[in-house]
């Protein structure tokens, strides 16, 4: 007999526990976290018996596309493992692109490929996440098998991807792959070392959260090829929300292994430069505060880009903002002198100074001493200019 609505709602709540790992961001793919949607209950009829199913939709970012996997639980047997329907967002009305996925395997083979499903434990809240992880591995191997079946104009693409997989620094675990009739898309994870990035530069990442810092999406086909660098929000924050310095030549003659390796090296060099820049700025501003600390008003202790001092010369009080560019010490500090008395167009009179004696090879202490001397010398003209400007 049909399951009462209340029982169906209870079972729906029971199955939702399996999706907590997804909603908490503890599970995802190279290009984002898996999204979970609850679908309406369905009624199916098999062998004359009615049963209801609880349905959920997983939207999985994958190699520039989106896998749309339906998860079905039998609410009359809540301890039973789920069933799956495999689609992707680019499927059309007439053809399901992933229709052959897992269809040619025997029961014994499926148990070997999906041990978490074969040994389903309904008391384990991570049971479904473990199954999805195994399914994604199987799906990647399915796509690699489709790659080997390529013929005709795409044989050169097959050759390039084989070269990439044979490279010592790339493994199957580092990529997502989709084979279509006229092109292949490949998302390759780029290993980036952020272990030396100061913690103050970054918000703490949630424990257990999967994080892919960077990847590159390659599209190879009959109409040419293209590449796109994907950076996580955390990686963008490290790079100052800019990837404009990470351009590597990519064309039809590019060796994929060399290209991926060059992108990885460029990212790591950029991170290394940023970490070094933070340390340089910190050491200089620390030396400056040691000299003028009693006048300190504000000090950036996160990225060490600025310190502000309230100074006095002949009963004339003024602010000096010491601003450090990202490329310090190669580029010298900028000093902004600001009057606390005089306004121009309803704003404090300010003078910007970047032309003064400077040598990036000076020690931090010498830089601070030279800065102090320059400030005391420049304020004489600054006072006169601020009076005239008002």
What is the number of helical segments per DSSP (H or I, 4+ residues)? Answer: 9
Mean pLDDT: 84
Give the uncertain stretches in residue-range form: 1-9, 44-51
The major pleated sheet works out as: 5 strands, antiparallel
Order of helices and strands: HHEEEEEEEHHHHEEEEHHEEEEEH
SS elements, strand count? 16
Query: Separation of termini?
Result: 89 Å
CA radius of gyration is 30 Å
Strand content: 25-35%
Description of the molecule:
This protein has 9 helices and 16 strands. A hairpin with a 2-residue loop joins strand 1 and strand 2 (32-33). It has helices at 5-16, 20-23, 107-113, 115-118, 127-148, 155-166, 233-238, 256-292, 364-389, and strands at 28-29, 32-33, 35-38, 42-46, 49-62, 65-74, 83-88, 175-179, 183-189, 214-221, 224-231, 296-299, 306-313, 316-323, 334-344, 347-353. 33% of the residues lie in helices and 28% in strands. It is of the alpha+beta class.
Structure at a glance:
By secondary structure, the chain is α+β, with helices and mostly antiparallel strands. It has helices spanning 5-16, 20-23, 107-113, 115-118, 127-148, 155-166, 233-238, 256-292, 364-389, and strands at residues 28-29, 32-33, 35-38, 42-46, 49-62, 65-74, 83-88, 175-179, 183-189, 214-221, 224-231, 296-299, 306-313, 316-323, 334-344, 347-353.
Q: What features would you highlight for this structure?
A:
single chain; 390 residues; alpha+beta; 5-stranded antiparallel β-sheet
What is the fold's blueprint, element by element?
Elements: H1 5-16, H2 20-23, E1 28-29, E2 32-33, E3 35-38, E4 42-46, E5 49-62, E6 65-74, E7 83-88, H3 107-113, H4 115-118, H5 127-148, H6 155-166, E8 175-179, E9 183-189, E10 214-221, E11 224-231, H7 233-238, H8 256-292, E12 296-299, E13 306-313, E14 316-323, E15 334-344, E16 347-353, H9 364-389
Antiparallel strand pairs: 1-2, 3-5, 4-5, 5-6, 6-7, 8-9, 9-10, 10-11, 12-13, 13-14, 14-15, 15-16
Helix pairs in contact: 8-9
């Amino acid at each position: 007999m049909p399951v009462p609505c209340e029982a169906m709602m209870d079972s729906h709540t029971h199955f939702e526990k399996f999706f907590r790992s997804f909603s908490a961001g503890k599970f995802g793919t190279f290009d984002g976290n898996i999204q979970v949607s609850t679908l309406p209950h369905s009624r199916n009829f098999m062998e004359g018996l009615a049963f209801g199913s609880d349905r959920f939709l997983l939207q999985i970012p994958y190699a520039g596309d989106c896998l749309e996997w339906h998860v079905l639980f039998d609410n009359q047997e809540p301890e039973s493992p789920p069933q799956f329907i495999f689609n992707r967002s680019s499927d059309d009305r007439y053809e399901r692109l992933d229709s052959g996925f897992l269809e040619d395997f025997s029961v014994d083979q499926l148990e070997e490929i999906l041990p978490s499903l074969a040994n389903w434990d309904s008391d384990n809240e991570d049971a479904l996440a473990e199954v999805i992880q195994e399914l994604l591995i199987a799906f990647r191997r399915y796509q690699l098998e489709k790659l080997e079946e390529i013929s005709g104009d795409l044989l050169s693409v097959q050759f390039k991807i084989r070269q990439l997989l044979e490279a010592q620094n790339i493994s199957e675990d580092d990529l997502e792959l989709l084979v279509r009739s006229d092109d292949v898309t490949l998302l390759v994870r780029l290993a980036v070392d952020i272990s030396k990035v100061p913690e103050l530069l970054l918000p703490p990442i949630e424990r257990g959260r999967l994080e892919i810092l960077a990847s590159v999406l390659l599209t190879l086909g009959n109409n040419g090829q293209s590449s796109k660098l994907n950076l996580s929000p955390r990686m963008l924050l490290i790079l100052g929300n800019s990837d404009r310095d990470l351009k590597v030549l990519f064309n039809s003659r590019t060796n994929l292994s060399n290209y991926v390796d060059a992108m990885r090296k460029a990212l790591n060099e950029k991170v290394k430069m940023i970490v070094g820049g933070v340390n340089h700025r910190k050491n200089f501003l620390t030396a400056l505060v040691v000299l003028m600390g009693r006048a300190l008003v504000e000090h950036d202790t996160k990225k060490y880009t600025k310190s502000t001092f309230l100074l006095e010369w002949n009963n004339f009080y003024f602010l000096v903002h010491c601003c450090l560019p990202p490329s310090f010490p190669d580029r010298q500090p900028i000093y902004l002198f600001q009057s606390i008395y005089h306004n121009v167009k309803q704003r404090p009179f300010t003078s910007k100074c970047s032309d003064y004696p400077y040598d990036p090879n000076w020690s931090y202490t010498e830089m601070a001493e030279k800065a102090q001397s320059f400030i005391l010398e420049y304020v004489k003209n600054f006072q006169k200019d601020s009076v005239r400007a008002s």
